Amino acid sequence: MTKNIGKIDKVARIVIGVIFIVLGMMTGSWLGLIGLIPIATALINWCPLYELLKINTCGIK
Fold first, then answer.
1. How far apart are the C-alpha atoms of 3 and 26, rounded to whole Å?
2. Are 46 and 4 in contact (CB under 8 A)?
3. CB of 58 within 8 A of CB of 17?
4. Looking at residue 34, what is its pLDDT?
5. Digit-coded pLDDT (tens) for 28-61
6. Residue among 37, 61, 36 at smallest CA distance from 4
7. Buried (b) or exposed (e) across 6-25, using 16+ Cβ within 10 A?
8. DSSP letter, residue 31
9. Rounded Cα–Cα distance for residues 40 and 5 (Å)
10. pLDDT tier at 5 (50, 70, 90 boundaries)?
11. How many other C-beta atoms lie within 10 A of the C-beta of residue 32?
């Protein structure tokens, strides 16, 4: 797995993930589980969708 998530993208994914988790907790729904996906991809610096679409925000080729 080659890194394909840059610093700004990583911060945005963490913020979005936390927002989804908080919304899920506030509404008592399973929506919060969706927030784990962007957080997980941010922590491993790799996004499978970016891999398929040949997107790289990391700057490393």
1. 33
2. yes
3. no
4. 96
5. 999 899 999 999 999 999 999 999 999 999 886 5
6. 61
7. eeebbeebbebbeebbeebe
8. H
9. 12
10. very high
11. 19
